Amino acid sequence: MTGLTAMLKKEIKEQLRTHKLLIVTAVFLLFGFATPLLIKYMPQLLEAAGEGIIIQMPEPSAAMAIGEYAGTIVQFGVLVAVLMLMGAVSRERERGLAAIILSKPVSRGAYITAKFLATASSFIVALVLGSAACWIYSILLIGPASLPAFLGLNVLAALFFMFCLSVTLLCSSMFRNQLLAGGIALAILIIQALLTQVPVLGDYMPGQLTAWGIGLLSGPHPTAWPAVIVCAVLTVACLVLSPAVLRHREL
Hints:
Elements: H1 4-17, H2 20-49, H3 62-85, H4 90-95, H5 97-102, H6 108-141, H7 147-174, H8 178-195, H9 208-216, H10 225-247
Helix pairs in contact: 1-6, 2-3, 2-6, 3-6, 3-7, 3-8, 3-9, 6-7, 6-10, 7-8, 7-9, 7-10
């Protein structure tokens, strides 16, 4: 891939200059700190607001807090992924920057790969910091949780985020209008989430990864290896298709 190193440096600087790394990390950290607090004190809050009404709630646990955090960041992470990459290619095509960059010794594969790697790095940093905050705070406030299950959850969440980023990047390569690209990417991810609920078919959807990860926190849980394979294949396919599509689009 000609020019990958130079493009990657440019994209990483762009992540820092536009504060994208800071923003996505702040979002993950916010939920990482807030979720254990909410789970810990939710019974007291409901009791105070219930005006004498008795509300039965399960005993707060670290696994409950981490699972709630994971479910929340997956939902918000999908939106952040779309917002961060929906204009990655389409906006540069609109402004004529893509034509300038690709007129230099930079291949379309390097151009796309650099954007993916830079954004994926921001997501991984944010996920590590946010999850670490949630893990530590949950243990301090509530109690112990399984470390292997926690690590497995984060690996599966990271794989799912890579899928979301690759889908958005493909849509940004296909359409010149970034709002259209973002809307279609979000629609694809929502449809994928709905298909996760379909019997049999849902076992192969990338969204099954987060369900598996959250389930691990409660003990032995049915595996979702078919979903892992499909997620990896679709991610690679989107990254391969993006530069191929770009070759047939007017810059």
